[in-house]
Structure formats: C-alpha cells, structure tokens
Amino acid sequence: MSNIPLFSAKAVNAGLDFQTPINTVLNRHWYIMGEEVASFEGEFANYVGVSNCISVANGSEALELALKALGVSSDSKVIAVANAGFYSSTAIHAVGATPLYVDIDAALLTLCPQKLREALAQKPAAIIVTHLYGQLANIEEIIAIADAAGVPVLEDCAQAHGARRNGKQAGSFGTIACFSFYPTKNLGALGDGGAIVTNDDTLAGKVRQLRQYGWSSKYTVAVPGGRNSRLDEMQAAILRVKLPHLDQWNAQRRAIAARYNSAFKSLPLQLPASVGEDYVAHLYVVRSDDRTGLAAFLKEQGVTTDIHYPIADHHQPAYQSSCTLPVTESACDQVISFPCFPGLTDEEVGRVIDAVTRFFS
C-alpha cells in the first residue's frame, strides 16, 4: 500500500496545460517584467478585490518590502505572532526592526485581539496579522483596534489565498498585504514567487520602486533600501493558468477538512474552528496531547504528517526572547498536520480517518 503524502504537486497540477504558456514566454524571448507579469498582477488584484498588485520574487521578500514601504526601520517595533514558522520574524529582522510578540487566540491560533490591545501600549510601527493555516484571523476586530491606535496592518496571506468573510477576501482588509506562491500554497507557482497588494496607490508606487533597486527611473535610485525582487514571466504565466481554479481547489480542501472534522469530533483532538469560507485549509492542523505517539502510529500506517510549527519564534536559538506566550507555546507542543490537498482521493481520506481513529481506539 502506497504512502499518503502530506502534499502532492503531481495531484494538484494534474490535467493543467503548462506547456502552452511556457512556450508562449519562450517564443517572446522576454523573461522579466513583461506581458505575463503585468497581466497576472491585474488579474490577481481583481481576484483579491484591491486596486494594486505588485509581484515580487517570494513571500518573504514581500513581507520585507511591505514593511519598508510602511516606513518600518531599525528603531521600530512590529507586532507579530510567534507560532507561524518565523517568516514574519525573518522580515522584521531583515529591516532591522524588533519583533513584539503577542499571544494567539486559543481557537483560531491567530493573533488575539485582547492581547493586541495590551501590546499597543508599546507603540509599534506596524502589526502583522498572519492568516495561519488558511484561517482568517479576527481581522475585522483587529483592524478596528489598529485604526483606533493609528497603526497600519500588514496581512500575511501566504496560506490564505481566497479566504473570505462577508464578501471580503484575505488581503483586502488591511493597509497592505503579502502573498507567497511557493509550490505548496493554495495558489502555487512552479518555483518561488510572491506579491504585495494594497488599495493605497502611494504605498503601491513605493513598493514598485523597492522591488527594483529603488529606481524612480532606470538607473536612478530614489528610494533607499531597494532590492532586486521580481516575479519572472514563466512563473506569472503558470499562475495565470492556475488562478481560475483556485476557488474550486479551496472548496475541495474545505470538503476534506469537513470530512475530517466530522470523523474526529468525538476524539481527544482539538480541531480546526471553521470549515466555512473563512478557512481555505492550506493545512489541516489538529492539536493532540500525544503528538509524538500519533505521528509515529500514522507513519506506520503509511500516512505522512508534519508539524507546523514546532518551535515558537521567541524560542529560536538565534533570537531567543524572555517573553512568555502560554497559548503559543502550548500550540507549538501539540499541533500536527494531516494530508489535505486537491487531488487527495476519497479512498486516501478514508485511510487517514481510519488510521487516526484506530490510534485512539
């Protein structure tokens, strides 16, 4: 019996024609900042429901450039959560700022609004809100709190492409937002890629300069802190093929998550809080008091699992902090991810359910 992978690019991309768009790019002989990039930026902005999309090389650089565009600098503090893989922290450190970690909501595992209120006394320059595992945070409440304090909100949507609430999409709530198109994402390229979206035309103009050396015109550096961070034409062409399928793929992910939730509801697991439109099931993550035993048993049954994420940002050996985040630390000790992706067969989902159920029987 074959192993069930945590993710399969072969299954996700089955039936898609990538050769035609790649050949189109090859025949144009234009590989950077061309027609495919311009078209994708317009199509993705329209999909998210914002006026500007600026594509970049990857999601990490998207976060870094967005912080720079917001004016975050070496004397700034930036609020972030500490259970999301250190990606936001990497960007904060890259611009020389200091992370100000805030604990998470126990149900959603995203930024806790009440803890945010308390942290605002430290006068942060920005707030990063990560829609972790594809679950929208309490973003409306967070925006209201931030607006009252005059602090911009940067949405980290790397795992939440297409998540919606009350007609608004992830990436359209905050001041500015960032996406990753890493191959395993809900909208994934065939390599690295990222984007920054915003309704603020001034911010968008600054990001466009920052992604290309800080140029105001060719060879004229007008903005400090610029870099070479550009999505290439082939990746943009691939993303244009995949974008029309995104909502259908998200629905398939939610259907798998709903099936899991129904099957596991009586087990000693803490399950995802939502399987509605505000959750696009980038990862199906549960919490278990016996994560090690569960993972070992599932491996024996041919079910691949992973931990997203085992080390809280404030416990990373390179950047250890003295802050205490009890909900975050508990989650990092308990979370485990099960297979959940478009193309996962009904039979495979059944095998996962059977294996998890037998572990607890």
TrEMBL record:
It comes from the Bacteria. CDD domains: AHBA_syn. One of its GO terms (molecular function) is transaminase activity. Keywords: Aminotransferase, Pyridoxal phosphate, Transferase. The modification N6-(pyridoxal phosphate)lysine is found at K185. InterPro entries: DegT/StrS_aminotransferase (IPR000653), PyrdxlP-dep_Trfase (IPR015424), PyrdxlP-dep_Trfase_major (IPR015421), PyrdxlP-dep_Trfase_small (IPR015422). The keyword Transmembrane does not apply. The active site is at K185. The keyword Transferase applies. GO terms for biological process: polysaccharide biosynthetic process. Belongs to the DegT/DnrJ/EryC1 family. This is DegT/DnrJ/EryC1/StrS family aminotransferase. It comes from Pseudomonas eucalypticola.
